[in-house]
Amino acid sequence: MKLQILGTGCAKCNALTMATEKAAQTLGLPYELEKVTDLKQIMAFGVMTTPALVVDGKVKVSGKVPSVEEIKKLLA
């Protein structure tokens, strides 16, 4: 599973990164995590507000930091 965090490295981006890693580890999922900070790449996903979570190429969340429980539901 490929997980991407889209954002410029702000506090919310870091919070989303930590929550996503915790959710994936809790579920026991094999994953690869990539941080995308380049604005052109972020815009290529059609994301206008960061942070955003992309799972296997599909934007799942944009503009907010969901809870670990919410992320687990998105990954399951």
Short synopsis of the structure:
The chain is of the alpha+beta class.
CATH topology: Glutaredoxin
Strand order of the largest sheet: 2-1-3-4
Which class best fits the helix and strand makeup?
alpha+beta
Biggest beta sheet attributes: 4 strands, mixed
Share of residues in strands: 25-35%
Q: Provide the residue-averaged pLDDT.
A: 96
Q: How many β-strand runs?
A: 4
CATH architecture: 3-Layer(aba) Sandwich
Low-confidence stretches: none
Radius of gyration: 11 Å
Number of domains: 1
| Number of helices in the DSSP assignment | 3
CATH class: Alpha Beta
Secondary structure elements and pairings:
Elements (H helix, E strand, L loop, with lengths): L1 E5 L4 H17 L4 E5 L2 H6 L7 E4 L2 E5 L5 H8 L1
Helix pairs in contact: 1-3
Write structural notes for this entry:
The chain has 76 residues and is of the alpha+beta class. The protein has a single domain, classed as Glutaredoxin (3-Layer(aba) Sandwich), CATH 3.40.30. The chain is built from three helices and four strands. It has helices spanning 11-27, 39-44, 68-75; strands at 2-6, 32-36, 52-55, 58-62. It has a four-stranded mixed β-sheet. Helix 1 crosses helix 3. It starts with a strand and ends with a helix. The model has no long low-confidence stretch (mean pLDDT 96).
